[in-house]
Amino acid sequence: MERPTATVRHVASERIGFGIDIGGTGMKAAPVDLTTGELAADRYRIDTPRPAEPAAMAEIVVELVRHFDWTGPVGVALPTIVRNGVVRSAANISDTWIGVDADALFTGLLGQEVAVLNDADAAGVAEMRYGAGRGRDGVVIVLTFGTGIGSGFFVDGRLAANSELGHLEIDGFDAEVRAAASARQRENLSWDDWATERVQRYLDVVVALFSPALVIVGGGASKKPDRWVPLLDVDTEIAVASMANNAGIVGAALMAPGGPGASGALVD
Q: What is the Cα–Cα distance from 255 to 250, expressed in whole angstroms?
């Protein structure tokens, strides 16, 4: 469990927001400096409960907020499709989340406004505001290669939520089954084979379908970009994500009610 070095009361302002990033194994939170995209305190992490059901996870969300004595709106990133605050899928958390109004659940418990979004969208939002996508117009696609393939889809700096490009069907397979970073490990593929056969094929299809001006690659595999990114040969610019493990927290804070991303525009 990660703990801040000191307990300080944090209050929402134009400069400071608050984000929570919920994953299948851990739930992380921190206040965020919205002018720089840096955390305003060390993040605090609690293991995701098992089973990962709404009531148990909501209790931890409350604990994360209270740990920082936070007052103000909250953004929450969930590993699910989220439409108008309602959960429509479940990945690495309980299926009992499906149909839950997560905005209303968290807002009711906290007594503070909460906005919930997909975790890959949150990471993409952070990358567009502060990272490799900063200032970029046109179609920009952020892809996270980890257990699966998450995606954030942006047009002129605006998020098109819940794109789920990791689930494109390619050659008869769900794309992430063959091209996620977990497939390289599961099938004991070399970096070269994974990049030139699996990721290359996936990106060829993505680029052909959407003609992006920029593709940003992130997720766990981006910790070693030199092993695979230079091997890719696609008809568009590729950049490596720069926001690392804090991207979900930062993106959630940006999209909290009243935050800089809440209006939809992320490009300065």
A: 9
- Residue 82's DSSP bridge partners are 87
Q: Are 151 and 165 in contact (CB under 8 A)?
A: yes
Are the CB atoms for 16 and 36 separated by under 8 Å? no
Q: Rounded distance, CA 201 to CA 124, Å? A: 22
CATH number at 173 reads 3.30.420.40
Give the pLDDT confidence of 132-178 residue by residue, as tens digits. Answer: 999 999 999 999 999 899 999 999 999 999 999 999 999 999 999 99
Q: What percent of the chain has pLDDT over 70?
A: 93
Identity of the residue numbered 97: W
20 - beta bridge partners?
29, 76
User: Residue 51: is the preceding peptide bond cis (ω within 30°)?
Assistant: yes
Residue 10, in any domain of the structure: no
Q: Kindly list the distances between the CA atom of residue 16 and the CA atoms of 40, 104, 118, 153, 189, in Å, as whole numbers in the listed order.
A: 8, 23, 21, 26, 43
Whole-model pTM?
0.90
Domain range for 51 is 16-122+247-254
